[in-house]
Design a protein that fits this description.
- The chain has 762 residues and is α/β, with parallel strands linked by helices.
- It folds into 4 domains: 19-145, Rossmann fold, CATH 3.40.50; 180-343, no CATH class; 350-476 and 502-554, no CATH class; 572-759, Immunoglobulin-like.
- The protein is 38% helix and 26% strand.
- It contains 19 helices and 28 strands.
- An 8-stranded mixed beta sheet has the order 19-18-22-16-15-24-27-26, with no helix packed on it. Strands 20-21-17-14-23-28-25 form a 7-stranded mixed beta sheet, with no helix packed on it. A 6-stranded parallel beta sheet has the order 2-1-3-4-5-6, sandwiched between helices.
- Strand 5 (106-110), helix 5 (118-127) and strand 6 (133-136) form a beta-alpha-beta unit.
- Helix 9 runs antiparallel to helix 10.
- The longest helix is centred in the first third of the chain and has 36 residues, at 232-267.
- The termini are far apart.
- This is DUF4012 domain-containing protein.
- The chain crosses the membrane at residues 161-185.
- Keywords: Membrane, Transmembrane, Transmembrane helix.
- InterPro entries: DUF4012.
- It comes from Candidatus Roizmanbacteria bacterium CG10_big_fil_rev_8_21_14_0_10_45_7.
Amino acid sequence: MSNTSSRRRYTVEILEEKKTAVVVYIKKTKITDLIVKLLSSMYRVYEVTYHDPLQLPHTDLAVFVNVDVHDLDALARSKKQIFFLFFNVGLFSSFATWCKQHLTAYKLVHIGISSRPPSELLSFIIFKTPTPYVFDYAAGQDHKALHKKNSPPMQLSFKTMLVWLLATLLIANGIFYVTFGFYMYSLFNFSKRMPTSTEKLTTLIAQLKQLNIMTIRLSAIPRNTLFWLPGQGYVFAVLDTGNALVSLADDGLGFAKQYSSIVGLISKRNKTIEEQRELTLRLEDSNKEITELLASVDKAITAIKRVDIYFFRDKQKETLRRLLEIRDHATTLKTIQPHIASLMGKDGQRKYVVLFMNNMELRPGGGFIGSIGIIEFDRLSLSAFRVYDVYSIDGQLKVHIDPPEAIRAYLNQPHWFLRDSNFSPDFTQNSETALRFLKRSVNWDGFDGVIGVTFSGVQSLLEAFPNLVIADYNETVTSDNFFIKAQTYSEKDFFSGSHNKRNFLQAVLNALQVRLQEGDYDNLILAGDIKRSLDEKRIVVWFADEPAQTVMKQNFWSGQLSPPQCTTIATCVADYLMVVDANLGVNKANFFVQRAIHLTTKIEDQHIVNNVSLTYKNDSPETTFPGGDYRNYLQVYVPAEVQIARVSIDGVKSSYSQSVDGPFRVVGVWFTVPVGQQRNVTILYNFTKTLEANPTYQLIVQKQIGSINNDFIYEFIPTQEYSVEYTNFPNLVQGDRFVYNTFLEKDRLLLIRLQSHENSQP
């Protein structure tokens, strides 16, 4: 048998099952036969003679021909399409209201006299009309589709064509400008109220992209027809700006999702070789994506600067501010990116100490150290994260270490322990001290860095993990209730060496790690919270790796003191202020304490004179824990070369201590703010150096680690000898002084360039 003859052919016939229909009538007629015939082309048809009670087969369509149906409730419950064809106008009228109230897929027709053949009329009614459909042909109101008039060919004159063309262009341009206006409104509303949620941001960007594409396509009409009108260039410049902003938002969202994958991989323990390779590749790709993101930002900045429209300037200024902020964040991330893999143990194990500092019991270095965490990374994997209660470590210290004098005098503590070790406002110094305590207490060493995390820092990070379930405690933790929950479990059945606090914190961290691995968090909120916590010193970092630590210093995340010095201006006066509290009342009163800083600078006899006014208000509801009297050892850091003229509390001269610590003079004051009261501490000091001609006054104001964002008011009072030529901060002129009112959420550098009157131009 040949190959050809051996081949078999298979013919497959696909039979599509027809839908079913039932035709119900009282008497069989030519009309019913015609209806059955018409339906048979598309349905498998059943015929039923009507009688009560009505029992219909399960079909897709039921056609009632001149039948007065009694069991309407059963009919209403059915899911069929239902057609009523009547020759009786009374039945037609009586069924009209009922059909409208109880049915959706129906046709109700009164068949009257028509010039059309019955087959054509019935075919039109059954197959070519929509549902619902109601019509009375007996009234002579024949459906317009049945009456097709043969109109003579339309003859369009040139004038008619011109009018039609102009109307079309007018409508098309109108559609463009309406779309353009809505697009601009959506874009600037998005820019002004940019959502922090990834889910909402994804939805809004998708909508903006669709509007952007539609507007750009429609813009081809006015670009080619209205180019001669004045002002059209501004419209298209704004459109180009919108296109650049939408492109930037889309790139930024993609970058955020990439980092979400990176965070998930980093937090996963015991990664496979494939996952390690994936993480390495994603980190490498993210470098390119940061560069592309920066290019998109620069493109958007260039586009928006081209737009010079009066009514647009406020929005332009705000959008530019946000773009510059995004560029700053992206540039910062680009400096960190090269160090991430090394810090995560790509080339070997990395081990870090985490100091959990309760800034509701504020100390100079951030807060009372209640727990210690040990984080270990190995080959880009989080290999361990253990939490220890600080008292279990302090209990193993076998040698005596002299404490700072304030701890000895006001805390009545003759020994120094790890829990009180962060008594310097400089985190680098505190890190070295903490590592020495760990070595002496439990013989732990070989650490690659120290991370200080305040209670406020943890609270802020929890915003990205809504409704965090702590299964071991049957609790749901949020950023709002974390303080109460943590305090409750840390103080419950407390004794020195108990593990309640450690166990609860460990459970919270474990739950966070699971959510990170599963991607069950908002990456935009998390990224923003981490950046803000670092900027606002809720989290501070010290790395043994010098290049990485240099990046931390450059971004002011290291918690180090900045010496008062001018590096670029010869005739410069370098001033400095840092207000440092130490709550030594053995309570969490800082949860209830408000602090405001008011600094006034004036010139007297060619010398700078400063007056620092500090207002403390204790809103603790009662003297019992966690609130209570605020027993505070205050230290104010100013330049070493100044002279302290007076220190007073509530206007009464007070005793104080002072010492020189490198470039700083430190003024120490001990006072108590009772529950429900407030205190005002004032320190007056002056510079001994005489001002030169046309000097620049530079003031560094540093925020204490862990301190709540305080009100900060700065006033500068010029004199007849010196006037203000320039400031680098926004200010209000109130009478004879310049006033700057802000929050001290991060370190500030203020510059005032002065003009000597004898050197000023007439």
